[in-house]
Amino acid sequence: MYKDLIKVLGNFGTRRFASNLAPLKEEITKSNLSILFEMYVGRMILLSIVAFFVTMGFIFSMFLFLGGGFLLALMAGLITGVAASFGILTVYHSYPFQLLTSKKKSIEANLPFAINHMGAIAASGVPPFVTFKLMSGIPEYGEIANESKRIVRNVDTFGMDVVSAMRNVADRSPSQDFRRLIYGVVSTIETGGDLKIYLENAAKEALFEYRLKREKYMQTLSTYADFYTAVLIAAPLFFVSVLSVMSLVGGEVFGLSIPVAMRLGVYAMIPLMNTMFLMFIHFTQPTV
User: Fold this and answer.
1) Prediction pTM value
2) What are the residue ranges spanned by the domains of the chain?
3) What is the DSSP annotation of 124-136?
4) Which tens digits make up the pLDDT trace of 123-151?
């Protein structure tokens, strides 16, 4: 019954909002989620409906219990219900994109070293399939190991040839750099080129770009350090000094007494600003 309901809602949603859900379908395909697009949409719609009625009923009952009027309780229930439903839709719609972003970062962080390893394996003269099979057994390479596992699965389980298996994985990869690498391997195989030389050149180029990105980030980090010194070290010291002088003559800051304003700045604003700066540095640094 549950699966049938999800299927009905999924078919309705994919037909009714086909153009709006087209990007979501592509993201689900590339993220390799083990669920059909229609079932994913059906689950998203069903949970959104359930969240709407559950949240609305809870808020409506709570307002009535606390003595609020019927109209106020109904309006509060409707607003929170719509907000909860919209939140579920947003989470479901953005989850494949977040998953793709995470996979892309993992691939691009490990790609220079993985290409170098692949070149060393290819230098021994083994076939490309064996190269990817060996790469699939190295979990330190993150999503590159998983992409290699999919190539091996396409050959061993689905009976594809190596070239078709690589093309299938490249088409679904969220990383353009990895896609370019796989297409280059395919082109080298089809034209009878030297795979060892191609991978060696690709490894040199990838390592050069990796070092370039790191150097660029270090320069950016230097700018961040200057900003931190000026805004989060010098400015708070100036703030505390000014308030200390003002406390001698009395007065208020934004309606607060000087001691209260100083405590608010020292124990709340300064730690909060430092925490936000650390989070900004964490989320903007390149993945290693």
Assistant:
1) 0.71
2) 2-102, 105-209, 212-284
3) TT--HHHHHHHHT
4) 888 888 999 999 998 888 889 999 999 99
